[in-house]
Amino acid sequence: MNPPEKNQNDVKHIQKLYDLTFEATNRCVQCGYCLAVCPTYETLGKESASPRGRVNLVRLASLGKIDLIKHLASPIDLCIGCRACEVACPVGVPYGHILDSAKEVIATKEEEKQKPALSYTVKKALLKHLFPYPKRLRTLGNMTWFYQKSCVYKIVRQTKVIEKISKPLAQLETALPLLESPVKRLKPSTVIPAKGDMKVRIAFFTGCVTDAMMHRINRLSIELLSLIGCEVVIPKEQNCCGALHIHQGMSSMAKDLAKKNIEAFEKSGATYYVNNAGGCGATLREYDQLLKDEEEWRERARNFVNKSKDISEIIVKYGPLPFKREWKGIITYQDSCHLRNVQGVYKEPRVLLQSIPGANYTEMEDSTKCCASGGIYNILHFNESMKILNNKMEKVKKSKATTIVTANPGCLLQLRQGVKKNNKASEIEVVHLVEVLARMCSIE
Q1: How far apart are alpha carbons 371 and 356 in whole angstroms?
Q2: Start and end of every 4Fe-4S ferredoxin-type domain (predicted)?
Q3: What φ, ψ does residue 56 adopt, rounded to 5°?
Q4: What SS3 state is found at 191?
Q5: Residue where one domain finishes, among candidates 83, 116, 149
Q6: CA-CA distance, 161 to 439, in Å (whole number)?
Q7: Among candidate residues 71, 97, 116, the one where a domain is terminated
Q8: pLDDT digits (tens, 9 = 90+) for 80-127
Q9: What is the pLDDT of residues 130-146, one digit of tens each?
Q10: From CA 162, how far away is CA 392, in angstroms rounded?
Q11: CA 333, CA 339: separation in Å to the nearest integer?
């Protein structure tokens, strides 16, 4: 392969990639420990779909030996970003940093094209004009609730009109749980008192998609926190965490969102900032890395990170929960990649599930391997996502579980797709950890 010809703009991008990643990519010794845990390497079976392969490609691109768009963009885009390779790596290669940096440089180069790709234009429009605006997302959620309640919902399902437009969106639509009435959505600035003696003040992160489309999970989360003695406040000015923006290389937007969230949560006076979405929580816990080059935000971001917790951590710390029912059936747990691999939280969800009266908990084979939700990965790379999901469903079947529990909304929808595809919807329930705990505490 001959080195690509470079103009002044190319040199600028290559230099930026070099500055951001070269030292990190040189830490990779190409040992291959990452191969066994990489979902795309398992299904695609080629070196460019492995972590070490992608690291090597980024290194070559940073040296100007391969083209950023022609040779690097596709392998990078096909990575789910589960970051299991970071946990497996014996020398601590910061793969997440390398991946996000490569995406940022590629996105910048794409932006400078006279005619950017349509997919990039659509993604940018959504990330710029929808996700940073909670009210717009709530309106979308309200419209979805109305759609599900109307006769249009049945007509759309019967005619399969969405499938004719987009098969990925059609499967996502069928996996979406029935939304709770918008009147039950808790409003920003609301303070929910602790039941009994107050142990701690919590600021709750509602998330963007969860708040819009699965606000029942948020409501149940807050009721559980209140039940164990937490006073819960919902900061008014909070926003999208910025995860989707980072994953699409739009770090400047992500930084703006991070700053708004830091300001909003600082005002809460809370001891902890709690979330119930593994993907969001991972981004919140890396705000210090995102803003490390901005002196006025560095310390504030570090303090924010130190206070950010997953809800399972808080329930274990301040529980136990007052269970009132017994569970029937076999429960298994699918790890949220970002909850486990980035936040390091994997014991707490299992401890909580195993504490449920009557629960027959079984550990699923490869429960730590990705289900291929990956934010919007299952929409952008539907076929690759379904291959990985098919592997996951084989493990589900072997577990003989009647309930699959996860701790991330994206994983929840992806696993629901898998259950429906395998005609197991009447046999296997897919629920968020919060839903299981609330049900056992007689909270509906």
Answers
A1: 25
A2: 18-49, 69-101
A3: -65, -40
A4: strand
A5: 116
A6: 35
A7: 116
A8: 999 999 999 999 999 999 999 999 999 998 888 766 676 777 888 888
A9: 999 999 999 999 999 99
A10: 26
A11: 13
Q: Do the Cβ atoms of 186 and 218 come closer than 8 Å? A: yes
CATH code (residue 27) = 1.10.1060.10
What percentage of the chain's residues is helix, strand, coil (to nearest 5)? 60, 5, 35
Question: How far apart, in Å, are the Cα atoms of 252 and each of 8, 84, 245, 282?
Answer: 23, 26, 9, 18
Angle at the Cα of 373 from the Cα atoms of 339 and 70, rounded to 5 degrees: 110
Q: What is the mean pLDDT of residues 335-361?
A: 96
Closest to 247 (Cα-Cα) out of 297, 283, 278: 283
- Whether 423 maps to a domain, the answer reads yes
Type of residue numbered 238: Q
Asked if residue 111 lies in contact with residue 250, where contact means CB atoms within 8 angstroms, the answer is no
Q: Which domain holds residue 79?
A: 8-116
Q: Please tell me the distance from the alpha carbon of residue 209 to that of residue 234, in angstroms, as a whole number.
A: 16
- pTM value? 0.93
In a domain, 107, yes or no: yes
Q: Distance between CA 380 and CA 168 in Å, rounded?
A: 8
Other C-beta atoms closer than 10 Å to the C-beta of 291 total 23
Cα atoms found within 13 Å of the Cα of residue 312, Cβ hemisphere only: 29
Reported as a pLDDT band with limits 50, 70 and 90, residue 199 is very high
